Amino acid sequence: MKIELRHCEDGVHEIALDNLIIKKGLLFKKISYNFADDPMPKYMKVIKHFTKGEEMFFGHYRTDGLNITNEEWEQYDKEIPEHFKTYGRYEPPTTTTVIKKSGKVETYSSLLTVGSLPVNEATFDLIPKAFHYYLETVCFCPNIDWEAFVQSYSNYMKHGARKYAMTGFTDFLFSYCDSGRFSVSFDPKKNDPQALLEEIKGLF
After folding, report:
1. Measuring CA to CA, which residue among 142, 185, 179 is closest to residue 18?
2. HSE (side-chain half, CA atoms, 13 Å) at 149
3. 95 - beta bridge partners?
4. CA distances (Å), origin 48, targets 75, 82, 123, 177
5. How many whole angstroms separate alpha carbon 182 and alpha carbon 176?
């Protein structure tokens, strides 16, 4: 696993824990994931270390399920929404109905879901399942209220969420996407990037 510091053009810094294996061929690059050493406990160790607060906000973008079995998919499909509804907040994808000129009615579903949960072991146990179930997930301890987050995340497809740490929404933003890419985004003016990198390396 690689642990590296990345400087982004928009001022955001992130530390990425990358579990990808890239093999270069003559015509293309083949990307696969190294699951011989399960990286999820390491991701969770980072999340627990930097989680400071009583509540976490979650933003999810579409479902994935690439690295789970059919049985796990059926389990998570019920368990994840139920957990959010029981212990926190959960707003599933909204639907939009459009009437065409022909009179035909078409319904579109948003690919975005938001939720919140208290910071406790039950939430930490659920996070790996959410990481596998959704294609992309961001989570963080908020410095903003729920309504502000929901409004901001509705523009995820246009702006993403990486700037949340730069705009003061949170101190640390945790992101997991494409079944293997995990990163921690932060404001370099508030946290020394090199010191943070060494702190994360020291966890392992």
Report:
1. 179
2. 28
3. 109
4. 25, 23, 11, 19
5. 4
- C-beta separation of 50 from 184 below 8 A: yes
SS3 content of the chain, % helix, strand, coil (to 5): 35, 35, 30
Number of Cβ within 10 Å of residue 162's Cβ equals 17
Q: Which residue type sits at 24?
A: K
Q: What is the DSSP letter of 45?
A: H
Residue in the structure block whose two tokens are 């995820």 = 156
One-letter amino acid at 195 equals A
One-letter amino acid at 57 equals F
The model's pTM is 0.85
In tens, the pLDDT along 186-203 reads 999 999 999 999 999 999
Query: Taking a C-beta distance cutoff of 8 angstroms, is the pair 149, 37 a contact?
Result: no
Let me know: does 34 contact 21? Beta carbons within 8 Å.
yes
Structure tokens at 44: 């969770």
Neighbour count for residue 40 (Cβ, 10 Å): 16
Tens digits of residue pLDDT in 2-49: 898 888 767 889 999 976 444 444 444 444 445 456 889 999 999 999
How far is the CA of 26 from the CAs of 22, 23, 29, 30, in angstroms?
Answer: 13, 10, 8, 11
